[in-house]
TrEMBL record:
GO biological process, one term: DNA transposition
Organism for this UniProt entry: Chryseobacterium kwangjuense
Keyword ATP-binding: no
Span of domain Transposase IS116/IS110/IS902 C-terminal: 209-292
InterPro entries: Transp_IS110-like_N, Transpos_IS110, Transposase_20
Phylogenetic lineage: Bacteria, Pseudomonadati, Bacteroidota, Flavobacteriia, Flavobacteriales
Coiled-coil blocks: 173-200
UniProt-recorded name of the protein: Uncharacterized protein
Keywords: Coiled coil
Statement: the UniProt record of this protein carries the keyword Iron: no
Pfam families given in the database record: DEDD_Tnp_IS110, Transposase_20
UniProt GO MF annotations: DNA binding; transposase activity
Domain of life: Bacteria
Domain named Transposase IS110-like N-terminal: residues: 8-167
């Protein structure tokens, strides 16, 4: 039997990295060669490379496989990329579904690392290309903007409650008003920073001009979607993007029983949150592609929110295709196409 390639599955948490080294042979048999834990730090990364060199006995390709969970994997991914290693990053739902299908019933760091190594051995995965550093900075700025908005809402509610109570503390009112002024200034600062990042990056600026030509999609909406998806780097199909954002539909039907059909919401809530207002604007401004879809779904379900969620999903798909094809939005595209075929 001849070995074909090595794979190292890395389950990354805040403090440590659990690694599993596996090898696959020409009979498609995957064998675990070694497992080890390393601290999630630069020292741990260096030790990981040293451990890898000691364990590997043949001149074969070595792939490092990890999940895109939170931000804890990013430093390791960049370190390995800077050292010319092959890195593959999976969406969490893909890894989870594969391990379920393979019969895994338990879950811990060691099992996850072995599962990732086996996925990398048995499948040809897309090699990870680091996103633009501007996208990572943009993600931090958009998340901070959302956090500030949430703090402002809480502070406003507290101030409203005190101002309408029987007895009021002047010092509390003063502090709340001062806090609101600070939050407003920081929100403006974040918005200016987001605009500056986009305008200073020619690629981002070109995509921004194409995508924000859709009425209702603002600079902030564009920034959140692109930052949360890393410029759609991990998405080869629009269906994967829909699943990632939690817009995939879950049906509940068996025999004569017809239950409630709804979206899963098992995905990035920040994307769904930022698409709420653009969906309202798209319908209000009477844009044909969105207005017709809204009417069709509302006539069928009599539930406005279901129709608006469908518009959010369509907007996300539109952003994806405009980004991939690098073209601007044409509101009459569907109607022109239909007229030419009639």
């Amino acid at each position: 039997m001849r070995n074909l390639k090595y794979t190292i599955g890395a389950d990354v948490s805040m403090k440590e990295i659990v690694c599993c080294l596996s090898v696959i042979n020409d009979e498609q048999e995957v064998k675990v060669k070694a497992t080890h834990k390393f601290p999630n730090s630069k020292t741990g990364f260096i030790r990981l490379l040293s451990w890898t060199r000691k364990q590997i006995k043949e001149e074969l390709p070595v792939n490092f496989i990890m999940e895109a969970t939170g931000v804890y994997h990013e430093q390791l991914a960049w370190f390995l990329y800077d050292h010319d290693k092959i890195v593959c990053i999976l969406l969490p739902n893909k890894a989870k579904n594969w391990m379920k299908a393979s019969g895994a019933k338990s879950k811990n760091d060691s099992i996850d690392a072995k599962g990732l190594a086996k996925i990398g051995a048995e499948r040809k995965l897309e090699v990870w290309t680091p996103p633009s550093k501007n996208l990572l900075i943009l993600r931090d700025c958009t998340r901070r903007h959302q956090a500030l908005n949430e703090i402002r809402t809480v502070t406003n509610n507290q101030l409203h409650a005190i101002l309408h109570s029987q007895f009021q503390s002047k010092i509390v009112v003063k502090q709340l008003k001062t806090t609101l002024k600070l939050i407003e200034s920081q929100l403006q600062e974040m918005e200016d920073t987001i605009s500056s990042i986009i305008s200073d990056d020619p690629i981002l600026l070109r995509h921004h001009n194409n995508i924000t030509s859709i009425k209702g999609l603002s600079t902030l909406s564009f920034a959140v979607i692109i930052a949360e998806t890393n410029g759609f780097a991990l998405f080869k199909k629009v269906s994967a993007l829909i699943n990632y954002a939690g817009y995939d539909v879950i049906e509940n039907q068996s025999g004569s029983h017809v239950g409630r059909t709804k979206i899963s919401k098992k995905g990035n809530s920040r994307i769904r949150r930022v698409l709420h207002m653009p969906a309202l604007c798209a319908v209000r401004d009477d844009q044909p592609q969105f207005k017709n879809l809204f009417i069709r779904i509302y006539d069928r379900t009599k539930i406005k929110m279901k129709a608006y969620v469908a518009i959010q999903k369509k907007l996300l798909m539109m952003v994806y295709f405009l980004w991939k094809k690098e073209c601007s939005y044409n509101p009459n595209f569907v109607h022109t196409e239909r007229q030419s075929t009639e």
